[in-house]
Amino acid sequence: MTTYVHDIGGAPVIIGAGLAGLMTALHLAPEPVILLSRTPLGTDASSTLAQGGLAASLGEDDSPDLHLADTLAAGDGLCNEQMARRVVEVAPQAIQSLVRLGAPFDRALDGKLRLGLEAAHSRRRIVHAADATGHQLFHALLAVARRTRSITIMEDVTALRLVVAEGSIVGLLAVLHNSVFAMPTRRVVLATGGIGGLFRDTTNPLSSFGHGLALAACAGAELSDLEFVQFHPTALDSPRRPMPLISEMVRGEGAVLVDEHGDRFLTDTPGAELASGDVVARSIAHYLAAGHRVYLDARQCLGKKFAKRFPAIEAACRQAGIDPAVEPIPVRPAAHYHMGGVAVDADGRSSVGGLWACGEVACTGLHGANRLASNSLAEAVATSAWVAASVAGTCAGRQWPRLPATVPVRPDPSPMGQIVSNALGIVRNGKVLRETIGTLLPIAVGETAAADPALVSLLIAIAALRREESRGSHYRSDFPGRDAAALPSRLTLCTAFENAVALRWQKSERSR
Ligand SMILES: Cc1cc2nc3c(=O)[nH]c(=O)nc-3n(C[C@H](O)[C@H](O)[C@H](O)COP(=O)(O)OP(=O)(O)OC[C@H]3O[C@@H](n4cnc5c(N)ncnc54)[C@H](O)[C@@H]3O)c2cc1C
């Protein structure tokens, strides 16, 4: 392996070019910034796949207080209320800033933004661009980023390790094709997205395995709430991966969940089809495990209007040979969103000097034990401004990093699918988690392409084992009840040995 040093003049580096990375880079302008993307832009970012939209209290019958109440209810007691309040209060302004950047959101005849309804929202507050919000938004922002001279975009570059000296970032190691190089910088923003790619059934790009979590863990950063993985109740049940999503908005329009006989099975559940996502996902998983098939039936509420209202979803159904206007859509839950992540403060700073995190890889505490639908893009947009201000206000400096003796190979998460889906799916239990930790440990401390994905899976499994209760998206069949005294969790990877990892585990002191 040859490693050369790529001098970037100490500019900050953003790892990841989804919505969080793009917005952070745009907010940093005119400060020079390097934006890294593992693939050609937009080809493996969850941001481009978002259908529903962004939650903001813009309606006349709505307010930040109501949005906050819904967010806290979904978070099931573990949200950081201060952070949640801050995000919902700025969300309406964040939407206006996106409009100014060219976001083509849908408007009503009177010119006002059209607001959709999603599960567990008490008001219509989802700003969207038909059912391809992420795609439209991403490409509008990308066009602005490409015109912004202070942003240097580097595609096909994968960050492999952060280099730390005396508890602070001094650079990173990355690979372009087969060339490994070092970038000296004292400011790195992780914007690497989620972890769905660790699971067999996922709506995320298959490469989204939480690489940012592995980078942060190996740099000694604190990680928080890792056990909380949200499963979307209604992914299209076809062989296609990632699984196309049948957005909550379809249920918001009145579509109902039925079994193979056409019978609804959620009528006794408070909220029925619009109950919180984890309740709906668990009910569907339970029904599937009992040998039923589950369908989303939009024939009555939308029928022929389906294609006009949800063109991208209709196209995905058609590809699978289904016409949603006249047939029910087969659905099953799929790993969708990670509430846990790199523990950050109000400015997006991690516990390691010079390391920030933004977007899905970060854990701000907004989501607690479960995310309220469409709060994640709103969070990425809101927090990117705070992260950028904090990065810009930090002294740059430059120190040539002492390079590590070995460089990890480019990771491959594919061996994780079976292991992770069995142990860390919708229903978990201690016995399987313990066995899985034993399976993952040697892979995580090894040197194969599966090492980093296994490390992320291992840390999630440990967090899931330690949470001996059921709450939000985390359900333990051996601990089905709720522990009234439970707190958010935090862990730090201290050292990885040949057959063990040393962790610092602490109950979080962050406000709830
Ligand atoms: C199908 C689907 C629908 C969704 N719908 C909604 C919705 O309607 N509303 C909502 O609020 N949320 C939605 N979400 C969630 C939301 O889209 C994501 O949480 C959000 O887009 C994450 O943005 P991000 O910028 O953090 O990460 P991403 O958009 O996933 O971008 C991650 C970037 O990091 C790069 N990367 C990763 N590792 C490395 C590395 N080591 N080196 C270099 N680059 C790296 C990738 O190449 C990519 O560019 C949806 C998610 C999915 C999958």
Task: Describe, in short, the structure shown.
The protein is an alpha/beta fold. Helices cover 30% and strands 20% of the residues.
Please tell me about this protein's structure.
- 30% of the residues lie in helices and 20% in strands.
- The mean pLDDT is 93.
- It starts with a strand and ends in a 5-residue tail after the last strand.
- It is globular.
- The chain has a domain at 233-334: Alpha-Beta Complex (Flavocytochrome C3, Chain A, domain 1), CATH 3.90.700.
- With 512 residues, it is α/β, with parallel strands linked by helices.
- A hairpin with a 4-residue loop joins strand 20 and strand 21 (501-507).
- The structure holds flavin-adenine dinucleotide.
- Flavin-adenine dinucleotide binds next to helix 1, strand 3, helix 4, strand 8 and helix 5.
Low-confidence stretches: none
Instruction: Characterize the overall form.
Output: globular
Largest sheet geometry? 5 strands, parallel
> How many helices?
13
Sheet-strand content, in percent, reads 15-25%
- In CATH, what is the class of the domain at 233-334? Alpha Beta
Radius of gyration: 22 Å
Mean pLDDT: 93
Ligands: flavin-adenine dinucleotide
Category by helix and strand content: alpha/beta
CATH topology of the domain at 233-334: Flavocytochrome C3, Chain A, domain 1
Oligomer: single chain
Percent helix range: 25-40%
Query: CATH superfamily of the domain at 233-334, called what?
Result: Succinate dehydrogenase/fumarate reductase flavoprotein, catalytic domain
Examine the secondary-structure arrangement and name the CATH architecture of the domain at 233-334: Alpha-Beta Complex
Order of neighbouring strands in the sheet with most strands: 7-3-2-11-18
Ends apart, CA distance between termini: 47 Å
| Count of extended strands | 21
Organism: Mesorhizobium plurifarium
Cofactor: FAD
Pathway: Cofactor biosynthesis; NAD(+) biosynthesis; iminoaspartate from L-aspartate (oxidase route): step 1/1
GO molecular function: L-aspartate oxidase activity
